[in-house]
Design a protein that fits this description.
With 228 residues, the protein is α/β, with parallel strands linked by helices. The protein has 2 domains: 118 residues, 3-Layer(aba) Sandwich (Rossmann fold); 94 residues, Winged helix-like DNA-binding domain superfamily/Winged helix DNA-binding domain (Arc Repressor Mutant, subunit A, Orthogonal Bundle), CATH 1.10.10.10. 40% of the residues lie in helices and 21% in strands. The strands form 3 sheets. Strands 2-1-3-4-5 form a 5-stranded parallel beta sheet, with helices on both faces. It has a 4-stranded antiparallel beta sheet with strand order 6-7-8-9, covered by helices on one side. It has a 3-stranded antiparallel beta sheet with strand order 10-12-11. Helix 2 packs parallel to helix 3 and helix 6 packs across helix 8.
Length: 228
């Protein structure tokens, strides 16, 4: 298994790494919410262990963002909160399982293996397509009408977010959060990234797929979309 642990307790993370790496699993860790969200949406993990009480962005918000962006990686919520309303809130946010602290490492391992086994039959989306625009999430290769597109990392992130939501509108604030967490830069950097993405995706083609929604955000849509 390739496991992402999003947890700010260093001693707990060290214990998890020692246990799971000894069993032959690949481990990554993130100490706060924005870092965990970035890794979970940009890397191909088999399962995510997500703490509820994280710095900068709590686990509930991380999970909601993941699910809203269309990422269906299995997530086990790991938390000291054991009341029924807390468990229900975690499951409603999109958690696949819930384990309270303190816990047994063997039980955690069995739960994660069960989540991974179930997820293999869910048909996780690996390729996104809108009209003749295709984006392979595994290889990070994008093509339009069979022609390879050159995209910078920020452009790939924006493209994935827009295509996962298509044909719905993605607000500017959401794109800024996806790119920079809770500390977006000043100025019009997002607009510059959108401009570069448009040059690659729409520049040589008559049908424009990237649309601006005035004072709201952007979307990717095909023939039925209205022009900007």
């Amino acid at each position: 298994m390739r496991v992402l642990v999003v947890e700010d307790n260093r001693n707990l993370v060290a214990n998890l790494f020692e246990y799971f790496e000894r069993a032959g699993h690949l481990m990554d860790a993130a100490p706060d919410g924005p870092t965990g969200l970035h890794l979970a949406r940009s890397q191909d993990y088999d399962v995510v262990v997500l703490d509820w009480g994280l710095p900068r962005m709590d686990g509930h918000a991380v999970l909601q963002s993941l699910r809203e962006q269309g990422h269906d990686v299995p997530v086990l919520m790991l938390t000291a909160r054991e009341e029924l309303p807390d468990r229900i809130a975690g499951l409603r946010a999109g958690a696949d399982d819930y384990l309270t602290k303190p816990f047994d490492l063997e039980e955690l391992s069995l739960r994660l293996q069960a989540l991974v086994s179930r997820s293999t039959g869910r048909g996780r989306r690996k390729v996104l397509q809108v009209e003749d625009l295709v984006f392979n999430l595994k290889t990070l290769e994008a093509t339009r009408a069979g022609k390879a597109l050159h995209l910078f990392p920020a452009g790939r992130t924006i493209l994935e977010t827009l295509m996962l939501a298509s044909p719905a509108v993605v607000r500017r604030e959401r794109l800024e959060e996806v790119l920079w967490g809770d500390d977006p830069p000043d100025g019009n950097l997002l607009r510059s990234h959108i401009y570069e993405l448009r040059r690659s995706v729409d520049g040589p083609f008559q049908l424009k797929l990237i649309h601006t929604v005035s004072r709201t955000g952007y979307r990717i849509a095909g023939k039925d979309a209205h022009a900007d």
